[in-house]
Amino acid sequence: MLDVPKLFSPFKLGAMDLNHRVVHAPTTRLRADDDLSPSGMMVDYYSQRASAGGLMITESTHPSYDSRGYEGAPGIYTDAHVAGWSKIVAAVHDRGGRIVMQLGHDGRQSHSDLSNGAAPIAPSVVPFEGQALTKDGWVPVSPHRAIDIEEIPALIESFRAAAARARSAGFDGVELHNANGYLADTFLQDGTNRRTDAYGGGIESRVRFSLELVEALISVWGEGRVGVRVSPSGKWGAISDTDPERTFGYFAERLNGYPLAYLHVIEPRVMGVETIEEGKAPVASSFLRQVYKGPIIAAGGFDRDGAESILEHGDADLIAFGRFFTSNPDLPERFRRNLPLTPYVRDAFWGGTERHYSDFPAFDGQAAAA
Ligand SMILES: Cc1cc2nc3c(=O)[nH]c(=O)nc-3n(C[C@H](O)[C@H](O)[C@H](O)COP(=O)(O)O)c2cc1C
Asked: In this structure, which of 265, 287, 291, 369 has its CB flanked by the most CB atoms within 10 Å?
C-alpha cells in the first residue's frame, strides 16, 4: 500500500467538500415503514455509516407510489416521507457526513400488485424474465406496457417534485438512477427502446428522457448538486445495447453540457449485486473518463487496493462501495487503518429486521465485545 492513500485525500465534489473518497453506494434494503416512509432502523443504518466529510448516496427512492418494483422501498412524495428522511439527513449531518438521495423509477422491473393493478411501464414492450418483490414475496414481473408520449411530462414532473421534497428534507443533492435496467436506462439503451417518436430511434433521441430528467433535477438544485448513475454494458434487468460505447459516450458528452456534481459509473464486472467477472479490471470508468469532463465516482467490485489503484491511475475521483458497506458500518475507518472486513450477509439484503442490517458493530465495538 502507498504511504498516503489517495482514498483519504480531500475532494471537492461539485458544491460538496469531502474529506475522503470512500462513498456509500446506493443500496436498496427494503425496510421502509408501511406508508413507505423511512423506518427507525433506517435512521440507525444511515447514521452508523456516516463519516466526517464522507458522501453517502441513499437507496433508490421513488417519486411516486407506482414507480417501485420492490415492496418496502421508500418513497419521497408525501410530507410523512419528507419528515422521515429529514431524520436520516440530520443524523448523517450530525456526524459530519454528506448525503444525496438517489431518485429512481423501476419501470418494467415491477409488478401490477405494486401499483394498484396498473401494468408496469417502459419505453417499449420488450418482454423479459425478471422478478419483483410484492407482499406475496418474489414473483415474476408482470407484463409491461409502452407509455404514451403524452404521459412523459407528468413523469418528469414527478421527479422534479421529488427533488424539491428531497431539498426540503435537507439533503445535499440528488442522484438520478439511470442504471441497472430501470426506467431511465431502458430509454437510453436500444435493446429496450424501440420507440419511433422523439424519445426513440437514434441515440440523439434516446437520451431525451434522461436529459429532461436531469434538467428537472437541476431546476430544483442548481449547480454541483445533481449526479447521474449509469451502468454501461451492465446486464441487470436484461438490458442491452448494440453499441454501448456510442450510447454511453454520447450520453456522457451531452452531460458535459450541464452543471452536474458527478457521473457515477458502475463497472460491468458487476451485475446488479453480484460480481460476474472476478478479477476483471475496471473498464467503464476509464472509457467515460475520456469523454466526461466532471468528477467520476466509480463503483462495482472495488476493494481497498483496487480503489487506490484506479484513483492513482486517474480514471476516477471517488469510489462507491455497496456490499462491503452493508456489513461494515465504519468502512472508511477500516480502510484507513487497513483493518479486516466483516463478510456481508446476502440473505439479509432485501427486507427483514435489524438483524444483519443495523446490528453490525464498528470494528472497535466488535473488538470490545470479543
Ligand atoms: C443489497 C443491494 C442493493 C442495491 N440497491 C441499489 C440501488 O438502490 N440503486 C443502485 O443504483 N444500485 C444498487 N445496488 C448496487 C450497488 O450500488 C453497487 O453498484 C453494487 O453493489 C456493486 O458494488 P460493490 O461491488 O461495492 O458491492 C445495490 C446493491 C446491493 C448489494
From this structure: 265
